[in-house]
């Protein structure tokens, strides 16, 4: 019910309504956050940077690597590059140790505060290939939950563990808990809980190549390949049941994101580096593969400095959905040796740099995917101790 209808009943409510109209609207400014790593074989340190984006000039400025928004070290058991970063509740960047050895780190971008929760129970399943995704938390009282497909070891069944913001009625002052601003006096904390009743229907030898959340907010679609099998399955987080949909697989790799403007899932192309692709949302009750859309080379929306790079020097890429048809691609690329490398401290050799591109998508009249708008792009070097197996990722919040 609207505020006006609630306030129609009395004089006091009328005064409150006038006061509310005079009060300026509260707007939340979003920012682009970039996660980088800096470490060696013994210790890996992760940093989160708030990037300065010049929308008018279309430039994303390099972060000050010496002054990150926050910094934390991964547990030695993580082995570097095993941390998985996801966005939750519109303001939190969650870092999960895929090996289950280190604590779960949560950076609150609004409060600029870093907290730690218990480690992931088990480890990300080999059959899950790092499957971790955020869905609606229907089984935990609303909000969101991070679902991670885990196992306790090789030849052990896999199941989902869910991380959510939970209230502890037995909280003590000495525990690592803090009060929720919306519920004063109650203590909340980040908690893992097993939520799956049945193991996934695919074999452990099958690797998850793609996954996406259905627009219903609670159904996770998963595509697998290898192991003499493969196909696409779905898991209903409310009913806690798996279902097989067919031998087909989703056209992207890693996570695909639903965009309401396109009415489709969008992700990085499964086979061609530097491209994004879209497909219709799969039906929860149908076995037919969704319609596949033409791909877009997102180099076409990059700035001239980043688009001039050679694709065969780009090692990895990640994609993040920003909402309203906007996406952010982050690539890790090798740089060739230059004459100025020695003077800049590079020792005369090449290095590694990250390319960040923010762009929008739409369909043209022929139903092909194309750039709707180019907002910004930028490229800057990574720390010398960058772990090759880690892919930098950006978040919009």
From TrEMBL:
Q: Where is this region: Disordered?
A: 1-25, 288-309
Q: Where do Basic and acidic residues bias regions lie?
A: 7-16
The protein's matches in InterPro entries, at most eight in alphabetical order, are given as:
DUF1668_ORYSA, Quino_amine_DH_bsu
Q: What SUPFAM superfamilies would the database entry show?
A: YVTN repeat-like/Quinoprotein amine dehydrogenase
- Taxonomically, the superkingdom here is Eukaryota
Q: Which residue positions does the secretion signal occupy?
A: none
Q: Where is the composition biased (Low complexity)?
A: 300-309
Query: What Pfam family is a match for this entry?
Result: DUF1668
Protein name as annotated:
DUF1618 domain-containing protein
What phylogenetic lineage does the species belong to? Eukaryota, Viridiplantae, Streptophyta, Embryophyta, Tracheophyta
